[in-house]
Amino acid sequence: MITDTGLGSVQRERSAKIHMFTTSLPSTLTPTTCDEVLADLERWLRQASRAAPLDEPEASFVTASRRAGRRTRWLRRLLVVAPVAIVLAAVTGYSALETRMARREAETAHRG
To answer: Could you read off the pLDDT tens digit of each residue along the chain, which spans 112 residues?
Structure first.
């Protein structure tokens, strides 16, 4: 008779934990919620990875979650930087326009 050793229980616990992550997520995930869930998963993986390696489906889930987290962080940064860049471009363009208008006005005044 085969008894349940630590490895089988660790893998069952790991599968249950990952199942919990996938099924207990709120229906409306905000970026903060996603970050918190991913941080919880990362913390849990650091603790549990010493016991046994991940199965292929679990590793795929973790990889996809990390990829989605990176993509979300990149998009969030872009949404912060893009408006700042647009404002800076508008100010620079307006400044250049003012300079050209002042030069033309000075040339016109100098000729006249």
So the answer is: 444 455 566 667 767 766 666 666 555 556 567 778 788 878 877 877 666 777 788 788 888 888 888 898 899 999 999 999 999 999 999 999 999 999 999 999 888 6
Cα 20 to Cα 51: distance, rounded to the nearest angstrom? 19
Q: What is the pTM of this model?
A: 0.51
Domain boundaries along the sequence of the chain: 6-111
Burial category of 3 from C-beta neighbours within 10 Å (exposed 0-12, middle 13-18, buried 19 and up): exposed
Q: Count the neighbouring beta carbons within 10 Å of the beta carbon of residue 37.
A: 18
